[in-house]
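Regression test case RT-17, inverse folding.

Input:
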Protein backbone atom coordinates (compact mmCIF):
# COMPACT_ATOMS: atom_id res chain seq x y z
CA UNK A 1 0.00 0.00 0.00
CA UNK A 2 2.83 2.44 0.72
CA UNK A 3 5.52 1.22 -1.67
CA UNK A 4 5.89 4.68 -3.19
CA UNK A 5 4.41 8.14 -2.97
CA UNK A 6 0.88 8.64 -4.19
CA UNK A 7 0.53 9.70 -7.80
CA UNK A 8 -2.67 10.91 -9.42
CA UNK A 9 -4.40 8.23 -11.51
CA UNK A 10 -7.93 7.43 -12.54
CA UNK A 11 -9.98 6.66 -9.44
CA UNK A 12 -11.22 3.27 -10.68
CA UNK A 13 -7.68 2.11 -11.50
CA UNK A 14 -6.40 3.45 -8.19
CA UNK A 15 -9.10 1.58 -6.24
CA UNK A 16 -8.37 -1.70 -7.98
CA UNK A 17 -4.63 -1.19 -7.39
CA UNK A 18 -5.24 -0.59 -3.67
CA UNK A 19 -7.52 -3.62 -3.50
CA UNK A 20 -4.98 -5.89 -5.15
CA UNK A 21 -2.13 -4.60 -3.00
CA UNK A 22 -4.18 -5.19 0.14
CA UNK A 23 -5.41 -8.65 -0.71
CA UNK A 24 -3.32 -10.98 -2.86
CA UNK A 25 -5.99 -13.69 -2.91
CA UNK A 26 -8.38 -13.93 -5.84
CA UNK A 27 -11.44 -13.45 -3.64
CA UNK A 28 -10.77 -10.55 -1.26
CA UNK A 29 -12.40 -10.31 2.12
CA UNK A 30 -13.41 -7.12 3.86
CA UNK A 31 -10.69 -7.55 6.46
CA UNK A 32 -7.96 -7.81 3.78
CA UNK A 33 -8.60 -4.22 2.86
CA UNK A 34 -8.53 -2.75 6.31
CA UNK A 35 -5.79 -4.79 8.01
CA UNK A 36 -2.86 -3.19 6.22
CA UNK A 37 -4.18 0.36 6.56
CA UNK A 38 -5.03 -0.28 10.23
CA UNK A 39 -1.49 -1.52 10.85
CA UNK A 40 0.04 1.62 9.33
CA UNK A 41 -2.39 3.94 11.09
CA UNK A 42 -1.74 2.26 14.44
CA UNK A 43 2.03 2.39 14.02
CA UNK A 44 1.81 6.14 13.42
CA UNK A 45 -0.25 6.76 16.58
CA UNK A 46 2.69 7.75 18.75
CA UNK A 47 3.66 10.63 20.99
CA UNK A 48 6.45 11.63 18.60
CA UNK A 49 4.13 11.77 15.59
CA UNK A 50 1.54 13.60 17.69
CA UNK A 51 4.11 16.16 18.73
CA UNK A 52 5.25 16.60 15.11
CA UNK A 53 1.60 17.07 14.11
CA UNK A 54 1.19 19.79 16.73
CA UNK A 55 4.38 21.55 15.59
CA UNK A 56 3.27 21.53 11.96
CA UNK A 57 -0.49 22.00 12.30
CA UNK A 58 -1.30 22.60 15.92
CA UNK A 59 -3.09 25.52 17.38
CA UNK A 60 -0.77 27.63 19.59
CA UNK A 61 -3.36 27.33 22.37
CA UNK A 62 -3.11 23.54 22.26
CA UNK A 63 -6.46 22.77 20.64
CA UNK A 64 -6.44 19.37 19.04
CA UNK A 65 -8.64 17.62 16.52
CA UNK A 66 -8.58 13.81 16.57
CA UNK A 67 -9.95 13.81 13.03
CA UNK A 68 -7.18 16.07 11.74
CA UNK A 69 -4.59 13.92 13.49
CA UNK A 70 -6.06 10.86 11.77
CA UNK A 71 -5.99 12.59 8.35
CA UNK A 72 -2.41 13.74 9.03
CA UNK A 73 -1.32 10.19 9.78
CA UNK A 74 -3.03 9.00 6.58
CA UNK A 75 -1.10 11.70 4.72
CA UNK A 76 2.14 10.33 6.19
CA UNK A 77 1.29 6.94 4.67
CA UNK A 78 0.82 8.52 1.24
CA UNK A 79 4.40 9.81 1.32
CA UNK A 80 5.60 6.28 0.53
CA UNK A 81 7.21 3.46 2.47
CA UNK A 82 10.72 4.93 2.75
CA UNK A 83 9.52 8.33 3.99
CA UNK A 84 6.84 6.82 6.26
CA UNK A 85 9.29 4.45 7.94
CA UNK A 86 11.86 7.22 8.27
CA UNK A 87 9.31 9.43 10.03
CA UNK A 88 8.27 6.59 12.34
CA UNK A 89 11.92 6.11 13.26
CA UNK A 90 12.45 9.84 13.89
CA UNK A 91 9.56 12.30 13.62
CA UNK A 92 12.05 15.11 13.03
CA UNK A 93 12.61 13.60 9.57
CA UNK A 94 9.31 15.26 8.63
CA UNK A 95 11.33 18.44 8.18
CA UNK A 96 12.82 16.94 4.99
CA UNK A 97 9.37 16.41 3.42
CA UNK A 98 8.53 19.21 1.00
CA UNK A 99 5.44 20.99 2.27
CA UNK A 100 4.56 24.55 1.33
CA UNK A 101 1.31 24.87 3.28
CA UNK A 102 0.81 22.21 5.97
CA UNK A 103 -2.82 23.19 6.58
CA UNK A 104 -3.68 22.60 2.91
CA UNK A 105 -1.33 19.71 2.13
CA UNK A 106 -0.93 17.51 5.20
CA UNK A 107 -4.26 15.75 5.19
CA UNK A 108 -5.41 12.65 3.34
CA UNK A 109 -8.87 11.76 4.57
CA UNK A 110 -9.60 10.04 1.26
CA UNK A 111 -6.99 7.35 1.95
CA UNK A 112 -9.11 6.16 4.86
CA UNK A 113 -11.89 5.31 2.39
CA UNK A 114 -9.66 3.72 -0.29
CA UNK A 115 -9.85 0.13 1.02
CA UNK A 116 -13.63 0.38 1.29
CA UNK A 117 -13.96 1.73 -2.25
CA UNK A 118 -11.47 -0.81 -3.59
CA UNK A 119 -13.35 -3.70 -2.02
CA UNK A 120 -16.60 -2.45 -3.50
CA UNK A 121 -14.99 -1.90 -6.90
CA UNK A 122 -13.61 -5.43 -7.11
CA UNK A 123 -16.45 -7.39 -5.50
CA UNK A 124 -19.46 -5.22 -6.31
CA UNK A 125 -20.46 -5.40 -2.63
CA UNK A 126 -20.84 -2.45 -0.32
CA UNK A 127 -18.50 -2.31 2.62
CA UNK A 128 -18.01 -0.18 5.71
CA UNK A 129 -14.52 -0.65 6.98
CA UNK A 130 -13.44 0.81 10.28
CA UNK A 131 -10.00 2.17 11.08
CA UNK A 132 -8.99 1.01 14.53
CA UNK A 133 -6.22 2.68 16.48
CA UNK A 134 -4.72 0.32 18.98
CA UNK A 135 -3.30 3.05 21.22
CA UNK A 136 -5.87 5.56 22.42
CA UNK A 137 -4.43 6.30 25.85
CA UNK A 138 -3.35 9.87 25.06
CA UNK A 139 -3.87 12.69 22.60
CA UNK A 140 -1.30 15.18 21.34
CA UNK A 141 -1.11 18.43 23.23
CA UNK A 142 0.58 21.73 22.57
CA UNK A 143 4.29 20.97 22.74
CA UNK A 144 6.57 22.70 25.20
CA UNK A 145 8.66 24.64 22.69
CA UNK A 146 11.86 24.21 24.70
CA UNK A 147 11.78 20.42 25.02
CA UNK A 148 9.97 19.90 21.74
CA UNK A 149 12.52 22.11 20.02
CA UNK A 150 15.28 19.83 21.29
CA UNK A 151 13.59 16.63 20.13
CA UNK A 152 12.29 18.03 16.84
CA UNK A 153 14.91 20.69 16.12
CA UNK A 154 14.65 20.60 12.32
CA UNK A 155 10.86 20.59 12.38
CA UNK A 156 10.83 23.54 14.81
CA UNK A 157 13.32 25.44 12.68
CA UNK A 158 11.07 24.99 9.65
CA UNK A 159 7.59 25.50 11.14
CA UNK A 160 7.96 27.41 14.42
CA UNK A 161 11.09 29.52 14.16
CA UNK A 162 10.76 29.97 10.39
CA UNK A 163 7.22 31.43 10.51
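Golden output:
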Amino acid sequence: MIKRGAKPKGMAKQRVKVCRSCCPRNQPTKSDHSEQLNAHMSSSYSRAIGEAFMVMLGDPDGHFSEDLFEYFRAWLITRGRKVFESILADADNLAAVKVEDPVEECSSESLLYAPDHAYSEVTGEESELIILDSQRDWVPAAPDNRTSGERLSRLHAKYVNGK
